[in-house]
Amino acid sequence: MLEEKLKEAIVGELQRQAADRPQSLMVQGANDGNRSEELTVNGKIDLGALVMVIAGSVAGGP
Predict the structure, then answer these.
(1) Which of 11, 17, 26, 40 is the most buried (most CB within 10 A)?
(2) Pick from 34, 25, 23, 29: which is nearest to 11 by CA?
(3) pLDDT tens for each residue of 3-16
(4) Bridge-partner residues for 54, per DSSP?
(5) Host H or E run for residue 26
(6) CA–CA separation, 35 and 55 (whole Å)
(7) d(CA 41, CA 57)
């Protein structure tokens, strides 16, 4: 359960960042219908924002 929540938080944040900066970040594999365990990320990631989302997920945040 926690593992799935963390995966969803990470993928969701990476998709958000990619939507905000499509010229700087591309995420592939996140929308696969088969719930693939692999994700391809190409570009710059705001690590601080990603860490905040993960910490919030672990703490029980939205």
Answers:
(1) 17
(2) 29
(3) 888 999 999 999 99
(4) none
(5) strand 25-28
(6) 23
(7) 21
